[in-house]
Write a structure and sequence with these properties.
single chain; 225 residues; alpha+beta; four-stranded antiparallel β-sheet; three-stranded antiparallel β-sheet; 6 helices; 20% strand
């Protein structure tokens, strides 16, 4: 898959003989690939590109230090090669919350949501206490595993969650907070907005209107129960 920060691959660790996920830092528009596999930075974007690599490594180091957080995929390794960086994480079979809802009639009851989402709230709290903001909490980035746990996927650096950065922003309409469109800093409040919008979608079957539209005319209706 591809996002504003780079590519994600499925790989196989020949040492542990296990399936892994590989995230490659390769922001579209800022770089290209040479025939030998190395990365070539485009134009005058070297500062933004290199700053992104630093943030990419910092983010995955922080995530790697939180190996005991239940809603995270464990970071196994981080390395630099060919003028870019890679993060290797464990792979857990599962489906996105979006697909899970489709398979279960489009929505869930509060009794079904509570055991799925309450542990997720604690994990988000831990992330925020450690200076990590996801910036893309939605039905597309939460995954339901075969073990019944909900995990958070697709952590990106802040520039890839900002519509006014030089990177292509990976935002999810209805779940993205308005500061992400304005080019402002993302904070724990950004994740809280996305988390609340995701719960709203899960409980009602309807995605909230885009946050930009809500500023102009907020017609979000509250569920009766």
């Amino acid at each position: 898959s591809v996002n504003g920060e780079g590519f994600n691959y499925i790989g196989f660790d020949t040492v542990t003989e296990s399936v892994v996920k590989i995230a490659e830092y390769f922001p579209a528009g800022l770089c290209g690939r040479n025939a030998d596999g190395s990365v070539e930075i485009k134009g005058d974007t070297a500062y933004v590109y290199n700053e992104g690599i630093i943030r990419f490594i910092e983010l995955n180091k922080k995530l790697g230090a939180l190996a005991n957080v239940s809603a995270l995929y464990r970071v196994i390794d981080i390395f630099e090669v060919n003028k870019t960086a890679y993060a290797i994480t464990e792979y857990q079979p599962g489906i996105s919350l979006k697909e899970f809802l489709i398979r279960n009639g489009g929505l869930l009851t509060w009794d079904q949501v509570r055991p799925l989402f309450l542990p997720l709230m604690n994990s988000l709290k831990t992330l925020h206490e450690n200076g990590i903001v996801h910036g893309g909490i939605s039905v597309d980035t939460l995954f339901v595993g075969r073990d019944g746990k909900v995990r958070i996927a697709d952590f990106l650096i802040p520039a890839a969650r900002n519509a006014r950065s030089q990177m292509t922003a990976q935002l999810y309409p209805g779940f993205a907070a308005v500061e992400q469109y304005r080019g402002e800093d993302i904070t724990p409040a950004t994740d809280i907005y996305g988390f609340a919008a995701t719960m709203f979608r899960t409980l009602t079957g309807n995605t909230p209107p885009d946050s930009k539209l809500r500023l102009e005319s907020d017609n979000l209706s509250f569920p009766r129960s």
